[in-house]
UniProtKB/TrEMBL annotation:
Entry's transmembrane regions: 12-32, 69-89, 96-121, 127-144, 156-176, 188-208, 338-360, 372-396, 408-431, 443-461
Record's bilayer topology term: Multi-pass membrane protein
Record has Transport as a keyword: yes
Keywords: Membrane, Transmembrane, Transmembrane helix, Transport
The protein, known as: Major facilitator superfamily (MFS) profile domain-containing protein
């Protein structure tokens, strides 16, 4: 929506906030799947069913190659889902795309729960991943489209917050079934995934309108106005919001800027937006978060920690307050400061973890070394939840503006899932004793990448906080440098002759020294 008038209270926009909170529940699926599957990897029942016999230990184990396959295959589905999300969203809308994702979640879950062979497990995770890829694209876009501009960052941060809650629920369910000796130990956690699409689809059908911007792009202006009233209240004056959306679409039409993949490559403006979104998502995965969420219980078990499930659930719980702080502070301080402030301690924690962990590979590792490694993982998780977790999704949903909005979000989200897959696939080969056997020394790799990410943000990432999506688009079109984004004033109002806001704004733009 357009920027809210300063006199308009947040409480008066409660409808839009509640609707966004309902849509944000889609993130539960992402968090839960990541968490519960990392837990069943260390269950004896799962190893008995899907593992192979290890003569050295005399037990059934899940090898590094099989761990890599069954864990990372979901990222392949997520990548494909993110890539195809543009066509689905273009055809049936963001709300329609989320409803379709709910149906696919049920199919993928059924394949996993009912399957008895490794092939069906892999197929189920691939299908489920496709749905998660759609959700990861549509939810941030829907939240950015429907949230009041003054609290858009906090609302989109709910995506990461709900991922965190899903992570906690996944570990708790695993903990409650881990002592079972039958296949219920891992099938029950799989079956819990039926709950999330039921809740999300019910909320969408009962309360949530379609994205106003999508409706306007389909020339359904009356439906666009109705959706805005549903977001702001039946008596609200939504004409200014509707006019801003329609004018921006009209401006793009006059300029001949139809949405196309070619235009992203040919236009330096569109290419800049695509680069920023893709680089930011790649750097987020480069910080190594997926080795903690995807292999946490296994990681803690290998370094000699008892009760890895308790450690893992505590790890996720301590990240929740950090996300709360982020939701409040991201609107006060902006996006760039949160990424910079959180990135440095994340890198330090990873480096210390790697250095201290060298003791664990000696003949008689100390308990103090193991506990220090765990402590550094906690420090890392707190600051990731504070900055790089929620803020990346906020920024990517904000800089994906203009006629290629859905395509730009598709590119950035698919980049996230590609590098998510890469980390998941490579980690067992780096970490496990039957491969490179780096163990905690992987922290040197992820710590170095995190420092590179901090430097990239400092020099190249613009600050979109406090802007309507139309204002952000104008700043990109005006080729405002990253370091001047926050100090540039824009007037998008049309003049008396009804000229397009872009033409008026080009004359009125003011750089504040």
């Amino acid at each position: 929506m357009a920027a809210s008038p300063p006199t308009e209270s947040i409480l008066s926009q409660w409808r839009a906030i509640v609707i966004c909170l309902i849509a944000a529940m889609g993130a539960f699926q992402f968090g839960y799947d990541t968490s519960y599957f990392s837990g069943i990897l260390v269950m004896d029942a799962f190893a008995e069913h899907y593992g192979t016999f290890d003569a050295a230990t005399g037990a059934m184990v899940v090898s590094a190659s099989r761990q890599s396959l069954v864990t990372s295959i979901i990222n392949v589905g997520e990548f494909v889902g993110a890539v195809t999300a543009f066509w689905i969203g273009q055809s049936i809308g963001l709300k329609g795309g989320l409803l379709l994702a709910c149906i696919i979640v049920v199919i993928g879950t059924t394949l996993q729960v009912a399957g008895t062979a490794l092939g069906l497990l892999i197929a189920g995770r691939l299908v489920l991943g496709y749905a998660v890829g759609l959700i990861s694209n549509f939810v941030p876009l829907y939240l950015a489209d429907c949230a009041p501009a003054r609290v858009r960052g906090a609302i989109v941060s709910m995506y990461q917050f709900n991922i965190g809650l899903g992570l906690i629920i996944g570990v708790c369910v695993d903990y409650s079934t881990k002592e079972r000796t039958d296949t219920g130990a891992f099938r029950i956690p799989m079956a819990v995934q039926y709950i999330f699409p039921i809740i999300l689809s019910s909320g969408l059908l009962l309360f949530c309108p379609e994205s106003p911007r999508w409706l306007a792009a389909k020339n359904r202006i009356d439906d666009c106005t109705a959706a805005l009233r549903r977001l702001k209240g039946p008596d609200a004056d939504v004409q200014a919001d509707a006019q801003a959306i329609v004018q921006m679409l009209h401006q793009e039409s006059l300029a001949g800027e139809g949405s196309s993949w070619r235009s992203i490559i040919k236009s330096s403006v569109e290419l800049r937006k695509a680069y920023l979104g893709c680089a930011l998502q790649a750097l987020q995965q480069g910080t190594g978060i997926n080795f903690i969420t995807g292999y946490g219980p296994y990681f803690f078990t290998v370094i000699g920690i008892e009760n890895p499930f308790i450690i893992q659930v505590t790890l996720y719980v301590v990240g929740i307050p950090a996300t709360w702080i982020s939701q409040y502070g991201i609107e006060k301080m902006g996006r760039r400061p949160f990424l910079l402030i959180s990135g440095i301690p994340m890198a330090a924690a990873l480096m210390i973890m790697a250095g201290v962990g060298l003791n664990l590979q000696e003949a008689n590792p100390t308990l103090a070394a193991s506990r220090t490694v765990v402590a550094m993982v906690f420090v890392y998780m707190i600051f990731f939840s504070f900055g790089w977790g929620p803020t990346v999704w906020v920024v990517c949903s904000e800089i994906a503006t203009g006629h290629n909005r859905n395509k730009l979000m598709t590119l950035s989200t698919s980049t996230n899932w590609f590098f998510n897959w890469l980390v998941s696939f490579v980690f067992p080969y780096l970490f496990n004793a039957d491969a490179a056997n780096l163990q905690t020394r992987v922290g040197f790799i992820y710590g170095s990448l995190t420092l590179a990410a901090v430097a990239w943000v400092f020099f190249l990432l613009p600050e979109p906080a406090g802007r309507s999506l139309e204002e952000i688009e104008f700043l990109f079109e005006s080729r405002v440098p990253a370091r001047k984004f926050s100090s540039t004033k824009v007037d998008l109002s049309a003049n008396a002759e009804g000229e397009a806001p872009k033409a008026v704004a080009l004359a009125d733009i003011e750089h504040v020294n």
